[in-house]
Amino acid sequence: MFNIIIVLILSYLVGAIPTSIIVSKLAAGIDIRNHGSGNAGGTNVYRTLGWKYGVLVILLDAFKGVIAVVFVARLHFGDIPFDNPTPFDDFTFIQLLAGVCAIIGHVWTVFAGFKGGKGMATALGMTASLITIDVLIAGAIFVLTLISFRYVSLGSISAAIALPIILYIRENMFHVHIEGYKTLIVFTIGIALLIVYTHRTNIKRLFAGTENRIKRIPLLTKKK
Fold first, then answer.
1. What's the average model confidence in pLDDT over 176-202?
2. Cβ–Cβ contacts within 10 Å for residue 159, how many?
3. What pLDDT is attached to residue 176?
4. pLDDT in tens, 111-155
5. Which residue blocks in the chain are alpha helix, DSSP H?
6. 25 near 57, Cβ under 8 Å?
7. How many angstroms separate the Cα of 194 from the Cα of each of 53, 119, 170, 188?
8. Do residues 62 and 158 share a domain?
9. Closest C-alpha to 94, from 109, 81, 104
10. Residue 44: inside a domain, yes or no?
11. What number of other Cβ atoms are within 10 A of residue 188's Cβ?
């Protein structure tokens, strides 16, 4: 049990690394929480410091999820001291737990007063390590939504909600065998609910028509 606790704590701490705060301090000498929307996430960095730093933060946040699932989880050894409730092997189950802890760490980081980002990028990195094809499809939905409506929040929410739907369609309509489907469908629904929860203020602004829009999408929009 002690070994698992160490893995989960380390995964939380990896997720809790405040990348947006660090990058904004190094790049511009500012605290990103005092600018733009005040959110410690890649989108706010994008709007405040430009797309290059925004993309860098998003990639770093996603990498935190990958580190937890691919590397930190491997620190666990031996059998788990309780029944594994999933169809996965014990290691994959530990990976799921480590990924969730990384997301929690990102959203409620101990390094920034338990106020971090919204968890989308870290959840993306974590799930991409486990269900790559489904995440790629959800990523395409994010991009299409962003291009169509220019709202990052709407794209994030759409992709998060789409992920369990994609899993369901592939497994039940296209009859693609997805290992651990019954566990993954519940897990991705939980992730979607968390993403919706962390975007609750964005949802209010979307309905009110006051949500910030991306004016220009790099590589897709020509400069005037």
1. 93
2. 26
3. 94
4. 999 999 999 999 999 999 889 999 999 999 999 999 999 999 999
5. 2-16, 19-28, 42-49, 51-66, 90-107, 120-128, 132-149, 152-172, 181-198, 200-208
6. no
7. 25, 8, 23, 10
8. no
9. 81
10. yes
11. 26
Instruction: Give, in order, the Cα–Cα distances in Å from 77 to each of 12, 23, 92.
Output: 19, 35, 12
157: tokens are 């929410």
Please tell me whether the overall predicted TM-score, pTM, comes out greater than 0.85 for this model. yes
Residue 2 pLDDT class (50, 70, 90 cuts):
confident
Q: Are residues 112 and 146 in the same domain?
A: no
Residues 6+ apart with CB under 8 A from 62: 121, 122, 124, 125, 128
> Collapsing DSSP states into helix, strand and coil, what is residue 123?
helix
Structure tokens at 112: 């920034």
DSSP reduced 3-state for 33 = helix
Structure tokens at 35: 């600018």
Residue 123 covered by a domain = no
Residues 22 and 104 in one domain: yes
The C-alpha atoms of residue 219 and residue 1 are separated, in whole angstroms, by: 49
Predicted confidence (pLDDT) at residue 187 exceeds the cutoff of 80: yes
**Domain membership of residue 145 as a residue range:** 131-224
Q: Which residue has the tokens 């990976």?
A: 95
pLDDT tens, 58-86? 999 999 999 999 999 999 887 787 888 88
